[in-house]
Write a structure and sequence with these properties.
The complex is a heterodimer of chains A (506) and B (501).
Chain A: H1 2-16, H2 24-44, E1 54-62, E2 67-73, H3 78-96, H4 103-122, H5 126-135, H6 137-147, H7 159-189, H8 198-203, H9 208-225, H10 235-241, H11 244-269, H12 271-276, H13 278-298, H14 302-321, H15 326-357, H16 368-371, H17 373-386, H18 393-408, H19 410-435, H20 454-472, H21 475-492, H22 501-504
Antiparallel strand pairs in A: 1-2
Chain B: H1 10-29, H2 39-56, E1 62-64, E2 69-71, H3 73-93, H4 97-102, H5 104-123, H6 127-145, H7 152-183, H8 188-197, H9 204-220, H10 229-236, H11 239-264, H12 269-291, H13 297-317, H14 321-351, H15 364-367, H16 369-382, H17 389-403, H18 407-432, H19 465-483, H20 486-500
Antiparallel strand pairs in B: 1-2
Classes of the chains: A mainly alpha (506), B mainly alpha (501).
Amino acid sequence: MSSAILWAPLAFGLVGLFLPARAVGWWATLGTIATLGLAVAAALGFESGSSALQYAVDEPWISGLGVDYSLGIDGLNLFLILLTAVLWVGGVAFAAFREQERPKTFYFLMLVAETATLGAFLAQDLLLFVLFFDLMLVPFYFLFGAWGHDRTAEGGLTASAATLKMIVYTLIGSLLMLVAAIATAVLAADGGNLSFSLAYLNEHGLGHGSQQWIFWFFAAAFLVKMPAFLLHGWMPDAYRAAPLPALIVFSGVLAKVGAYGFLRVVLPLFPDATVEFQEAILLIALASILYGSVMAFTQTNVRLIAGYSSVAQLGFITAGIFALRADGSDGAVLQMVNHGLVVAPTFVIVALLLERTGTEDIREMGWMALRAPVLAALFLIVALATLAMPGSANFVGEFYILNGLFQEKIVFAFVAISGVAMSAYYALRLFQGTMHNRPASVQNQGLLSREIGVRDALVLVPLVLCIVGLALYPQLILERTAPKVQQTVAHVQGGESPEAKLASKP
Amino acid sequence: MNFNEPHIDYAGISPLIALTVGVCVVLLSAVFKPLRRTAPLLTMITLGAAAGLLIWQWDDPKTLITGALRLDDLAISISLISILTAAFCVLLSVRERATEEAGSGEYHALLLGSVLGMTMLAQATNLVSFFVALETLSIPLYILCATNLRREGSLESGLKYLIVGSIGSATLLYGMAFLYGGTGSTGFAGIAQGIAHQGLAGDPLILIGIAMAAVGLAFKTSIAPFHQWTPDVYQGAPTPITSFMAVATKAAAFAVFLRFFVVALGPSAGDWQPALAALAAISIVVGNVGALGQDSLKRLLGYSGIAQAGYMLGGVVVASEAGTSSLVFYLAAYVFMNLAAFSVIVARERETVFGDDIRGVRGLGAERPLLAWPLTISMLALAGLPATAGFIGKLYLIEALVEGDYTWLAVFIAVGTMISLAYYLRVVAAMWMRPETERVPGTQPVIAGASPEADPVDPEAGRRWYIVGPALLAAAATVFFGIVPQPLVEFASHAGAALFG
């Protein structure tokens, strides 16, 4: 099952190379839907209330080097896999409704990207994880660079320069991670046979001293990917350059791989260093919340508003993980899914607005609510979820995160709360600016009115329905993730189980 | 008088015999007019025969010619790498200007001569056979670099390589003299015994000898700071020869680097390990930084080769079985990564007037996907991205380094790889993405070699089987061994076991 989920997109992508250019978009959409079907089947058969690895596959891959082809699904990655599958259907279908240049290569790369991302989530072998983590970048490099937008007219970078910046930033992190991963395995084997299996490394802990530097090598890779404050330099240029179908999945899923890496790799393998550097990471997380929020207030490009709001949201998620309590991490997993589900429709709406107004500048948008009420209503739901309105799943997620943080580090929690308040401001500003504002320039007014079409509704409505569904029943995620999260966090705390009961009741 | 006939293991020296016969036959074929066109075919047959004879003796180590040579799995694997590279080179040389100008028979005979030197060098276990093999390898290459007779750049390349190569050889020879003087033996095992048992481990004479030998080999493997010749020679030489030099010479020189340092100088490993590690680090920095601004793809690959040599030297530094295996794996992967790129460069040199300039590959993604994909895969593999053999190679090397307590060098490799992305991806971007803002006229680089009109332009070169075939084959192998590395890992681990098992 795990293997089928992993390779289905790639298989469809390879076949797509041999189809006529007209059909390849629909074929790719079919591929993502098939993958989603497999992921849903896996979720339905998932045994909740268990922290064990399910659908596990474990075959030796490179036996001489101790690398296994080892996959599996548990509470940490189940919903991230579903999220990936859902958003890729949205992104690919959105693209399929439109003309693409060189469609065969475009959809091939989109599907390769899905396989790589699913691989990073599914991998249960440290080296396989690193491999997929790096591999994710390659298709996005081509997608952003070759199908992206040059921003030289606005004082920005060309698409290829922006993507180069992105890939250099992110690979700096991941190459150091490769060295760190190998060092972890070599130190854990202690002269015996090498193994990169996460389960094995979990049992054979590292010494305190080596945990310290290895921790930072991993943390650097994950923080760049998120991106966290100070390591976010690639984000604005890359977000502006990216083609929107690719950006929908990129913003929705890739950032989560970084946060997921902390939960999957760093907390279990380097518990001592995690406790030691807890406050350092929390500081970075808080800085990301504040910086991301403030930038989201002040930007006028709608892509960047969404991009910086992601920085803030990922800061929240990191803070939740590094509360090192079961409720904080539960909230973080929930919030990863929530954020993916709100940021992807935001970019779909950005794309629709761009088609209607021809601009990405919030000052020149507006007047949409009256002329496209359905679109505005859909956007309202997304915006309210972004600001974590009580009743939304985001509210539950943020509540858990803050609850965990309050119990552990009350000072940090107070600062983090300001982030909740600020998210209300930037989410509403984005909504009002695009839907209600009367634009300063008059010449755009004639272009404004167009209701959302059936095709785009087919993309957008299911995503919004996911948000609504989760708002009604967040336990769907919580009860499946809680056991594994508790186990992970308890391991860091040295076996003493924290007040984990809270986690099973919202 | 009683004459004792020495025992000769004809099976063991059969690959050398096959190559020697091949050199003679190919050279003679040039004399007879009807046979002139058969030189490439005869060369391929010779290479195939030598490869077959080598594979026949796989896993059957033996000492030959009273200890001058040792045919073990390390020697066989490196020889096979050289032979494979030569076979690619023969295909890429079809219709190459240089082969016609220098004479097809002579060109191919020289190529085979160089392969003969490499096969011997990989087996050498004695200072004399070591040096003779090294010169057998080098001298044909000096000439081959200059075979593009009507291009100034090619002649300059040959001359430069001759002078610098001779300095390297002389330094090496001087170092050997010190080692012989100190230990009283020319055999690698004898030198090791001498150092170990006569208490010579920290002796200044031995240290000078080691240093000079290291410098001499560093010249051959283009390790910085002894690399200055590399970009110029690579750029000037005919491209098929550049590809052969870049891969096969490196493989053979690293084979003897391993054997000489691990077997002969093993007892003083503590002295040379830090020094070689420092050279590796310098090479990584110099190569990667030097490649950044290059517009000529051959120069770019030259600098990248310097950096890659730095990575590979890490496999020698740790002096362990894992290090040897990882180095052989990397060399094998390096054949495919590099030849995919060089095949595309050969095609574009003949198709366009840009020579090997990066402008020659602009827009290749839309125009010639069959050429663009191999070059893309090659660049991504050289940059060590996953799903290519380059990633597994780096993984293997870093694993060996960390196990051998050289984690800092592993970090250096990671940092070097990051820098390298900037220039590898620039090539990829030129092929697939919109052109960068045009340069100001006048600052454009001079096209490699001489005037573009002198070059025969064959607009169909990129569709010829003998160019597209090698390119696709090498690219496919790069991806294949990135996904299914196990066979190549086994191959490499045999080589590692040969030296340490």
